[in-house]
Specification:
Shape: flat
Largest sheet: none
Number of domains: 2
CATH topology of the largest domain: Tetracycline Repressor, domain 2
Distance between the termini: 59 Å
CATH class of the largest domain: Mainly Alpha
Order of helices and strands: HHHHHHHHHHH
Radius of gyration: 23 Å
Strand content: under 5%
Structural class: mainly alpha
């Protein structure tokens, strides 16, 4: 039986010197253009080769596998997060900024929600954004597992919020029905809910709520997550 080769990590390998018409950076740039326009299913080495006018096999000299390519493009878009080199010292403001930037990148590149979930991302940009968030909670006497858990809690909220927004946008795209049109469609059912008296909280929501937009919902949730993090800090903080 042939021995199984030892897996290699893309970031541990130095990229090949770029050729006149090809480089790892160029491959990543074109891959992002494809998935932004058409989604992850459209991405393949054959498609990349066509777009770059090279034989698909030549791409493997720069990117060993499709999984490596996904890691590379995921890290590239993480580099769009506009974070200062170091936290400001106001941990709430720093984590609020980290959450807002994470959401902005995910909404610009919806596919990145999928590529960011799974094994820990350890590319240079992923390390940079994680370092910033963790450093915001340094100095309070927390152990590293607690810091990691708190940062992960905030990150998980952002991904969940973005996934819901993207699902709503996909429904609109697939059906061609806008939010305003859905509201018109729902009117007969809403009137029945209001009339039967069996769902008083939903009736109150329909009658009384301001019905926040996506940005307001996100901001409210981030503040509640930050309240939870505050509860985990020493009282002196």
């Amino acid at each position: 039986m042939a021995e199984r080769s030892t897996p290699r990590y893309i970031w541990a390998e130095a990229p090949l010197d770029p050729a006149p018409s090809l480089s790892r950076d160029k491959i990543v740039e074109v891959a992002i253009t494809i998935v932004d326009a058409e989604g992850l299913d459209a991405l393949s080495m054959r498609r990349l080769g066509t777009e770059l006018s090279v034989r698909p096999m030549s791409l493997y000299r720069y990117v060993p596998s499709k999984d490596d390519l996904l890691e590379l493009i995921n890290d590239a878009v993480l580099g769009e997060q506009r974070l200062p080199e170091k936290p400001s010292g106001d941990w709430r403001a720093d984590l609020r900024l980290a959450a807002t930037e994470q959401r902005a990148v995910a909404l610009r590149h919806p596919w990145s929600v999928t590529t960011s979930i799974g094994r820990p991302a350890m590319g240079p940009n992923a390390v940079r954004v994680t370092e910033f968030a963790m450093a915001a909670l340094d100095g309070f006497g927390l152990d590293m597992d607690t810091i990691n858990g708190l940062v992960g809690m905030l990150r998980g909220y952002v991904f969940g919020n973005v996934a819901e927004d993207l699902a709503q946008a996909e429904l609109t795209r697939r059906t061609g029905i806008t939010d305003e049109q859905w509201e018109e469609i729902f009117i007969p059912w809403v009137e029945r809910l209001l009339a039967d008296g069996r769902h008083p909280m939903m009736a109150r929501f329909i009658r009384e709520a301001d019905h926040w937009n996506d940005d307001r919902v996100f901001e409210f949730g981030v503040e509640r997550i930050l309240d939870g993090i505050a509860a985990a800090l020493p009282s002196s903080a």
